[in-house]
Design goal:
The chain has about 150 residues and is an alpha/beta fold. It contains 6 helices and 5 strands. The protein is globular.
Length: about 150
């Protein structure tokens, strides 16, 4: 009886550990944005036509037309560059960030950059919703990138 109880306890423990290890990375990371702050690509395109939005590429993916390229915000010097870029912005200005190099749940760039926006107390802060990557969720939907400068 004791050996069956011990075996059952061991199996339950192993099952629990196995289930935890298979959790997606997003559930293990704290997201500083709310679901209402995820902006769909088509909505960004519409917003950009008004010219009343600032868009920052805080990753290593290609630039969306009209975006300011900062670079990988997971690197301290690029994060500081981003903080400097948003420092003087009016608190009610609409600011959108994106990366798009990898799936959002694994992205090392979007969380530090979004925290910087929150720290700057920008009220209209959004993260471009690119759950897979820029190629799939932007280019694949027919939206344009900036022309490369050589």
């Amino acid at each position: 009886m004791k050996s069956k109880l011990l075996l059952l306890t061991l199996l339950i423990t192993m099952a629990g550990l196995n289930a935890f290890s298979q959790q997606p990375a997003a559930t293990l990371q704290s997201n500083p944005w709310s679901t209402t702050q995820l902006l769909q690509p088509a909505a960004l395109v519409t917003m950009m036509k008004t010219g009343k939005v600032l868009v920052y590429n805080i990753g290593v993916a290609e630039d969306i037309e009209g975006a300011t390229h900062i670079g990988a915000a997971s690197k301290q010097e690029k994060l500081e560059l981003f903080k400097k870029a948003i420092k003087g912005i009016s608190k009610d200005k609409t600011v959108v960030i994106y990366c798009g190099c990898c799936p959002m749940d694994k992205c090392p760039n979007i969380r530090p950059a979004f925290r910087a926006i929150k720290d700057a107390r920008i009220q209209k802060a959004y993260l471009l919703n690119l759950p897979t990557n820029l190629k799939t969720d932007w280019i694949g939907k027919g939206f344009q990138l900036a022309e490369k400068q050589f």
